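Lecture notes, unit on protein representations.

Consider one protein chain, 176 amino acids long.
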Amino acid sequence: MDVATTAVVLSVGVIVLLVGLMALGWRNRVRRQQEVPAPAGPPGDPGAPLYAAEGQYVVTTSGGDWLDRVTAHGLGNKATATAAVYPHGLLFDRSGAGEVYIPRKNLTGVRLERGIAGKFVEKDGLIVVSWVQDAHSFDTGFRTRYAADKTPLLSSISALIEDTDPLIHPTGKEVQ
């Protein structure tokens, strides 16, 4: 074999090895996270949302550890999504992946961040929702498609957590 052919074969071999090791690591992470409870399913008829915004569901990580992606139950998969705030909870309706519903009682905080496992944007570009289920705490990142949606979505989730009247839209208008 000539030098060029040898280099190509070695390069392809290294790439295959790296992809295999990444797949093995992902599989092992899924196994380690088997005790992570599946998110609650949304109510059968959730009703009309108080506020909804299009964007990207970035990832769910272990609470307080922005690099520890939760792979169990598809929570670690990025997807185009709509974040909808209801009086009873928060729903991430993901395209091509399962819905992630967080009941109101499980929400513990919301904040703006620069990044979370695998997604980094401008300062305060991501909405990160903190929540608990059973003995596990999680952080879920969401990036709104339109910058104008970020503040109202953040306000709606904050109102839900603070147990203020969730029927008041972030703009101050009462929702029918």
